[in-house]
Amino acid sequence: MPAWQGCGMSTSPRVRAPELRGRQWLNTGGRNLTLRDLRGRILLLDFWTFCCVNCLHVLDELRPLEEKYGDVLVVVGVHSPKFEHEKDPDALAAAVERYGVHHPVLDDPELDMWQQYAAKAWPTLSVVDPEGYVVATMAGEGHAEGLARLIDELIAVHEAKGTLHRGDGPYVPPAEPETTLRFPGKAVVLDGGNLLVSDSARHSLVELAPDGETVVRRIGTGERGSADGPAGSATFSEPQGLCLLPTHVAEVSGYDVVVADTVNHLLRGVRLDTGEVTTVAGTGRQWRSTVDDHAHDARSIDLSSPWDLAWYEDRTVIAMAGIHQLWWFEPVKRTAGMYAGTTVEALRDGLLAEAWMAQPSGLSVSADGRRLWVADSETSALRYVENDVLGTAVGQGLFDFGHVDGPADQALLQHPLGVCALPDGSVLVADTYNGAVRRFDPATRMVSTVADGLAEPSDVVLTPAGDVLVVESAAHRLTRLAPGALSAVGASTVDGPRHRTERPPTEIAAGEVTLDVIFTPPPGQKMDESFGPSTRLVVSASPPELLSEGAGAGTDLSRRLVVDPTVRAGVLQVTAQAATCDVADEHGACHLTRQDWGVPVRVVDDAPARLPLVLRGLDA
Q: SUPFAM superfamilies, from UniProt (predicted)?
């Protein structure tokens, strides 16, 4: 999810926190919370939206803090939606369960709280002290360590003042549901016709009989974790994509299926005869490094929310949703590396190393093996890789979405998560937030709807018999489409609403503009020059003509830009990072702070000639 116009951490003295108001509360047992109810506790407001992978990263970053500071810290998720589907209260309730949100959530469908707290990015965190004052705001992810230091400071200050009250928080867990699957993510057909399904919310894999209902076995304990071992003791964390390896590759590698273990930032290998699970790629740490095109030892490289997998060009391609790229993994050589994308979150076609994506979440290979189809979820786009180029079949960009059929250049999707290539060359799309399965025909370049009324379909699977199964994630089941759904008679044409998420643009002057990325090391850290320059800044623009000068990469966090006066609007894409290390310890831990911005700008003659962005800092 692109940050809007500012990111980092800032403090303002004695700013009273606005009252908490919204459409409904979740995870409170029906109770409406107020700031008075939370007085005496440290309150952390997490402004999030459930489509946003960066927001999902923050949920996982907060879990250890919630456990460590459970008697003094109250986390409240303020759900501020981007997509129309996310405004549905039932969809929000499902997402809260799906992602294991174990704190109160305030439903803010019109972004009232978002505006009250001056949030400008998904995700944004605001810290309120025990006396009810906002003491810090941070945008983006990767703030867990800084938050821990801040919470320690607030505990010390308010215990001394007598204003800190310890005790249980207001979280009330919902009733435990009873279904065979819980928010299944992806599925593959095994030899013999059985189905292997990633049972994401139950942190396991389930093998089903060909009927899609009868459980053959479960792989994984169902508890969140990353333990290797037999089927009955191995653990996963919200697994998603599955890739069945070719027989000759499986024989050499020692496992048959590769699993995208999404929240663990790992790839796991599964032997189907025994159910044995082995970690085959990733360290378990989330990727926060620089991009290169080298091959790496697969167990030594960090990954970021791998979401789907496909066997293409004699290797496993990874939809690396967390950093808006495609990567590759070679099971026999046990190596991995970057395949496509720059980490810039946007829609731009071109050579693989230069193209832009946004949370790629579904992959499928054409019957002839030439084309790799990609569900690019945040751009609501169907895209493809062929001949070392990334192209777009359907989709307009980050903020245009809807349910519109017809010519592909006019059709719209809404946050698709899955794709399935058909033998005739067409492709089915799990159009998740429209609750539909759509079909794109490259021969006619037309889009049609073959099924709707589905509950967040996240994958589509074609069986050897020609049946189409839909992973109907929010209905916790696999659904078989009617035999005639794929025929011309079975398809329909929908001319639904068109939506656009509007962002307030930043006004900048034509001509010379100074871009300043502000970074202040967190308490107890210093800039780290051990491995070269401690900072890096990459700037590009859409359209590229917006910048006459200033695009490219460098190590200075200040950059002179020249804005073309004939281009009156566009988006500046800015990526900045800073390396720090702990001060107190000679061999202290190293840290990398990194943020991407997509800043909408409007060129105005009398606008400021300086554009400040806060990577991390303190503003007194």
A: NHL repeat, Thioredoxin-like
Structure tokens at 271: 């032997």
Burial of residue 552, with CB atoms counted within 10 A of its CB: 0-12 exposed, 13-18 middle, 19 or more buried: exposed
CA-based torsion, 173, 178, 183, 188: positive or negative: positive
Residue 8 — left, alpha, or beta (φ > 0 → left; ψ -120 to 50 → alpha)?
left
User: What is the rounded distance in angstroms from the CA atom of residue 546 to the CA atom of residue 251?
Assistant: 53
DSSP-assigned beta bridge partners for residue 429: 419, 438
* Cβ partners under 8 Å of residue 444, min gap 6: none
Answer whether 418's CB lies under 8 Å from 436's CB. Answer: no
Question: Distance (Å, rounded) from C-alpha 219 to C-alpha 342?
Answer: 35
If you average pLDDT over residues 336-361, what whole number do you get? 94
Q: Which of 619, 616, 598 is nearest to 535 (CA)?
A: 616
Element housing 118 (H / E): none
What is the arithmetic mean of pLDDT over 171-179? 89
Q: What is the DSSP letter of 432?
A: G
Q: Return the SS3 of 299.
A: helix
CB 591 within 8 A of CB 527: no
Peptide bond into 543 cis (omega under 30): yes
- The residue among 380, 384, 403 whose CA lies nearest residue 393 is 384
**CA distance from start to end of the chain:** 28
Output phi, psi for 154, to 5 deg.
Answer: -65, -35
HSE value, Cβ hemisphere, 13 Å, CA-based, for 519: 24
> Do residues 220 and 275 make contact, with C-beta atoms less than 8 angstroms apart?
no
Q: Tell me which residue has tokens 């070719």.
A: 246
Average pLDDT over all residues of the chain: 90
User: Cβ distance 289 to 302 under 8 Å?
Assistant: yes
Q: Which amino acid appears at position 539 of this protein?
A: V
Where does the pLDDT of residue 4 fall: very low under 50, low under 70, confident under 90, or very high at 90 and above?
Answer: very low
* Per-residue pLDDT, 512: 93
Q: Can you tell me which residue has the tokens 């810090």?
A: 136
Q: Is 324 exposed, middle or buried (0-12, 13-18, 19+ CB in 10 A)?
A: buried
Rg (CA), the chain: 24
Dist. CA 194–CA 209, nearest whole Å: 5
**254 SS3 class:** coil
Cα separation, 516 vs 261, in Å, equals: 38
Residue 496 vs residues 84, 401, 412, 418: alpha-carbon distances, Å:
13, 10, 9, 21
On the 0-12 / 13-18 / 19+ scale of CB atoms within 10 A, 415 is buried
